[in-house]
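USER:
Try writing one entry.

ASSISTANT:
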Amino acid sequence: MILVIPGETEWTKNGRYTGITDLELTPAGVNQVMATGTQLVGPGKLIDSAMIARVWVSPRKRAQQTCQLIFSGTDDIADKVTITEDIAEWDHGDYEGLVVGEIRARRKEKGLDGEREWNIWRDGCEGGESADQVTRRLDCLIAQIRKIQAPYMNGEKPVDVVVVAHGLILRCFVKRWLEYLLHDPIPMMLSPGAIGILSYKNHDIREPGFAIGMALPCPT
């Protein structure tokens, strides 16, 4: 299970919440993704199209651009790609384009969060999605992935899955993959243009895990 994070956008640089706003990658973001693709994508590499069963991509431009760039040297991937709102970034609603400090100040003006500060994992977004809504759509996608992978836990058939999406929704995805609630505190960092790896312990579909270290394939 391979996670691909889009490269840098203008709002990534200043920490603005970017949900439905359709930003493209900056030139630096393009370079980030291309560098990742050069190192990690291709025959015999970590991301090998021959090993991939499905690719799910967010419909936002930055995610689709990232998918196109990272697989730019691959000819046999198009038929495996599905674009879906299931993995679109969290809809930030009224908080779109704001930074955390601005969101908390606005909520305080409305008399909200008197006892504790706003936390998106718990409180969601006014005019946007709640944590429960995000959970439901991610759980739907994870169920599809596990249906594909469950029959081949011992490597009988290559069934790698790639998800190309956004920093916040992929952190949500990791939590749900591991069967945590979204408000459970798991500090995670995802750099623009980076790759993340999830899998299963003991080749058991009932034991989802994440790889904190992974050896790269040996050159052939």
